[in-house]
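Internal ticket - ligand job 566, magnesium ion:
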Amino acid sequence: MMKENKEPVTKSESVSFIEQFIIDDLKEGKNNGRIHTRFPPEPNGYLHIGHAKAICLDFGIAKKYGGKCNLRFDDTNPVKEEIEYIDSIKEDIRWLGFDWEEREFYASDYFGKLFDFAVDLINRGLAYVDDQPADVISEQKGTPTQAGIESPFRKRPVAENLELFYRMNEGEFEEGSRVLRARIDMTTPNMHMRDPILYRIIKSPHHRTGDTWKVYPMYDFAHGQSDYFEGITHSLCTLEFEVHRPLYDWFIDQLKTNDYRPRQIEFNRLNLNYTMMSKRKLLELVQEGRVNGWDDPRMPTLCGLRRRGYPPEAIRRFIDLIGYTKVEAINDVSLLEHAVREDLNIRTPRVFGVLDPLKVVITNYPEDKVEEVEIINNPEDESMGTRKVPFSNEVYIDREDFMENPPHKFFRLAPGTEVRLKGAYIIKCESFRKNEKTGIIEEVLCTYDPATRSGEHASEKKVKGTLHWVSANHAVDAEVRLYDRLFNHEDPAGRKDDDYRKFLNPDSLKVLKGCKLEPSLRSAKHLDKFQFQRLGYFCVDYDSKPDHLIFNRTVSLKDTWAKMNK
Ligand code: ATP
Ligand code: MG
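stdout (structure tokens):
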């Protein structure tokens, strides 16, 4: 029943500063009109909504300007990387709607070339083996306003450097005992240019190259050259890499055999309030059991958002709305939720679901009678048609739609008042039964007016309240999981003096059992999405089975947080 290929109403037409660079480069005929980008994830965790910003840009630009986008795994650290992550990254990119075709590459594809390049740098006196431990090297780096100190190994003869580097790669030395460094300049204000480390010793096997290597290139020594080897024309990355650019350029200068070089353009990261995006911390949440895995619907991971019921179109829409700039900012997670609502509004059928059931008995409706009432699937879109919903003498309504002593302007059900059951009849509350011990209302007794059935021949009678309902004899039981923000602090991970765990929202998951849903939902499949009328958007969880339906609430109908914070 879900609708595909629909565009929500709001649209942005402007071109980002990055696109403007691309347009200019094309106009100037750079790279013979070639546009080639890449998305370079490190396979050490699951992708999150922040990565979506990079993915939409890298793949989006290529698509829009007739170019190509490579998927390149930056697998330079064998210790933290796993196949599980590679598979999940591929699944998530496809789900977002992008395709790298046959261009799946790995930085490890270039380990041989990079090693040769390092040897070349040594031969040219531009790299040396440093025997000092990491903390000493880091101390000698100085500060941006204070020059660094040259390593005592900086003037090591070429032959000795070569021999040591090869022996490092033979596994002769312990991890951490030696590194290969570039010999650039220990006095330049750019800290990244102060003889950066190029290679370190790691003895763990690599998921693709096994035991071939005992030295591994640093990310900075692999990234720019990998772009160059793949013919990347535009290397789009986040702002923190701006200060690395001179180093990448220096490497390409040393490597260069022709006029071509990738153009690096930096943009602002996606930061969301009430969310943390660090892969390391997300891994902690998973490992410490604070969430139920990487795809827990409260996680900002793409697999988590997918399970929560976020459509990929809504994520793309949100990324489009926030745009790309040169200024770091924190985006409001409400805007993401707004994009999700806007998308689900046009895409999902409306159905009836009762989360906290209260039985209503219609005393003047024949006990054995069942009527099929016709309900519009989506008032925003006639083409989504109608469906039949059974109506009988006993229905469930949501408990909060009835009040024994209602306040003024309560237009729902109360003793003596009338409401319409959506798509069916107007009913009037005649009395109710209350458990005197517990004070809980167990049943509401109503009468219905046969002349008020929704449709062409309904009487003119009007009431102020319309309720959703489910026929008690036909309802299917379901478990419904209500999610709220995982953190109750705007910037949970941004406070140095405080642990983010302190800001975990204790009410981020509420499980409701015994919810009653209209029978059409019995056949709903995993990830099918619906609007439960008046309640919000819901989606079928992976754990759902035909005899035990489980729905996740994707998002409520309105932004309740915005209201509460006012
Ligand atoms: P790590 O700290 O492990 O490097 P990372 O978030 O940078 O984490 P990568 O796998 O290196 O993870 O990221 C792949 C690409 O996604 C990079 O080009 C990076 O710039 C981009 N990216 C990561 N996080 C964000 C974000 N929050 N907003 C926009 N782009 C991001
Ligand atoms: Mg990174």
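Auto-summary: Residues 49-64 form the longest helix (16 residues). Residues 561-566 have pLDDT under 50 and may be disordered.
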